[in-house]
Write a structure and sequence with these properties.
Layout (H helix, E strand, L loop, with lengths): L10 H39 L5 H38 L40 H15 L2 H27 L1
Length: about 180
C-alpha cells in the first residue's frame, strides 16, 4: 500500500514557507554574528590583560558558529527548493494569451470595449448586489490570498474593512440629519 500523494502547495503556501525560511536564515546569521562579536571582544580583553582564554570557551564559540553554519546551509537549501517550486508554478501560470490567434474559436472579439457604467447621480450604491457579485468577490479573495504574500493580504483586508466602516459611518450621519 502506498501513501496518497500530497497535493502540490499553492503559491501562497510557498510564499509563506519562503518567508519562514528567510526569518530562520536571518536568525542564524544573527547568532553567528553574535558569537563572532563575543569572541572578538573576549580576545581583545584577554590580549590587553595578557590573560589566556580557556580552551573550553574557545571551543564553545567555535561549536556555536559551526552548528549555526550547518543549520544555515540546510535552511538555504530549503530556500532554494522553495524558490524553484515558486518559479515552476509561475511558469505554469504564464500561459497568458498574447495574440488574438491564440483565442479559442467560440470567443467573440470586440473592437470597442463596452462603455463604462455611469454612477447614479445621487451617488447611492445599490444595497442589493447584482447576481454573481458576491461569488465574484469570494473568488477574487481566494485568488488574492493564494497569489500574494499573507502579510499583504492582511493589509488589504484591514484597509477594506476600514473603508466599509467609513462608508457606514458616513451614511449613518446622512440618515440621521
Amino acid at each position: 500500500m502506498s501513501e496518497p500523494a500530497q497535493p502540490a502547495p499553492t503559491l501562497g503556501e510557498l510564499h509563506h514557507a519562503l518567508s519562514v525560511f528567510e526569518r530562520e536564515r536571518d536568525s542564524l546569521l544573527a547568532t553567528i554574528r553574535e558569537a563572532r562579536a563575543e569572541a572578538r571582544k573576549e580576545t581583545v580583553q584577554a590580549s590587553c590583560c595578557r590573560q589566556p582564554i580557556p580552551k573550553e570557551v574557545i571551543s564553545a564559540w567555535q561549536r556555536r558558529i559551526k552548528d549555526s553554519a550547518a543549520e544555515l546551509v540546510s535552511v538555504e537549501q530549503k530556500i532554494g527548493t522553495t524558490n524553484k517550486a515558486l518559479r515552476a508554478i509561475k511558469a505554469a501560470n504564464k500561459s497568458a494569451i498574447k495574440s488574438l490567434t491564440q483565442l479559442p474559436e467560440g470567443v467573440v472579439v470586440r473592437s470597442n470595449p463596452p462603455p463604462a457604467k455611469a454612477v447614479p447621480a445621487n451617488g447611492e450604491i445599490n444595497p442589493n448586489p447584482k447576481q454573481g457579485h458576491v461569488l465574484f468577490l469570494q473568488f477574487f479573495h481566494q485568488l488574492v490570498s493564494e497569489n500574494l504574500d499573507p502579510r499583504m493580504v492582511e493589509v488589504l483586508e484591514t484597509d477594506a474593512h476600514s473603508l466599509v466602516n467609513a462608508y457606514r459611518a458616513t451614511h449613518q450621519k446622512e440618515v440621521e440629519t
